[in-house]
Amino acid sequence: MNVLALVEPADELSLQALSFAQSLGDVRAVAFDGPYAPSAWAAALVGAAGDAGAIVAAGSDRGNELLAHVAARLDQPFAANVTALDGDVVTRVRWGGSLIEEARLHGAPKLLTVAPHTHAAAAGVPVETLPAPEDGSPRVLETISDSAGGISLRDAKVVVSGGRGVGSSEAFAVIEELAGLLGGAVGCSRVVTSAGWRPHADQVGQTGTKISADLYVACGISGATQHIAGAKGAKKILAINSDPEAPIFATADYGVIGDLHEIVPAISAELRRVRGT
Amino acid sequence: MKILCCVKRVPITGGRMVLTADAEALETKHLGFTISPHEECAVEEAVRIVERDGGEVVALTLGPAEAEEQLRDCMAIGADRGVHVKTDGSEWDAQATAAAIVEAIDGESFDLLLFGNESADAANYQVGIRVAYALGLPVVTGLKKIELLAGRARCERDVGGARDVYEVPLPAVLTVLEGLNLPRYPSVPGRLRAKSKPLAVLEPARPESKLEKLRLVVPEGQGKQAEILGSGADAAPKVVEVMQRLGVA
Fold it and tell me: Residue B239 domain-assigned?
């Protein structure tokens, strides 16, 4: 089968999608120059599809968007965040990875994006740059950099996060203190942003940020699937919760049972003690 | 400004995913339901725009009879009327959903059509885009900021430490993300008013799925158990030991 694969330069998820595409057949890898223009890029992809049996992109914001545009142009079904394709049957993730679906993908070409971090990245292959039509469709006019300083939640090595159990905006001081001592970022659960205790930019979860920390410290967070969807990229999870039955203990690697308002300051004090500061 | 908001009823899943015996759906007997999070923000944004500039907010959903509850929730925070594309409770794929929305719109013109970027449950990332193509409208997705200018919308989308800026002429389809705003809670008078707001009900036949769900599976890995380091403040030395071992202390 001929496969058309969209590759975004210097994008790890694209290289993962490329390795998935290579497992399906002979790959023609394409990319675009110039400002991002989803509708125009999709038009060019459709134009380049030829006899391709599948069009594949990364399950990233842009990959999912572009394939949805391609699908709308071709009036064909599109399966997002696929982990496997066997004949017509796709396996794909739903609920931010908390549930898996097997589905028959009718139609041709097969349109799919590849779920992040489910395939090893492919080695570099020759990538052909396609021209995108100047069709007046929406495109990026400018990109504003958010050089906020500080450590981004997405890339922090340590994230210390608080949930409903923290109790108030002010009580996040103990979370901030521990995060500061560890050179990490402060996170929170959806309950916290919905209550207005922290800005949405701090939310770890399916509808917030997906982290990749070496250690995630979840304080007073019960562990709803919506939260775990954002936290499971962490290598290790330490949960601090007063309820020994909290679902977070079924996801965490380490647990401490008790009141975070006592435990978190005690951890900060112990860190200072061993460092002699 | 006349705004259509498309919302989806989804379960509030809690800590574990449990499936029905036929593995077709989540077991929802013990679960509450809500508007999918991104769409809550779409409704809030629409209501704020109309509160400021005047106009009308129409909330539309495709879902079972019970999804009227989510339309009434939209009305409780300020939507003026609802359109319920009623199903028998089985899932419609994204293509069928988009086609049914276009049919329900039935040529009525809106200045803005707002969608969530993706639903919490199915996460197909495509209904809004398909509706835009069917209506011949421009579409921008994944937005956390919308600013209305004369006849245009200036929109921003987060792209890892930066924001991409788009401008589109109205009418347009925009899909949004949670974080666009902080949705209000419905007031008691709002809830009372919602009960008597107009609701149109359509019951189209369900087309065949082209992304045809065969079964759902709960991924392995749920159900491991954390190593308990202790309880209370006394556990602090052990926690710090673990942090040192992980190289983060």
Answer: no
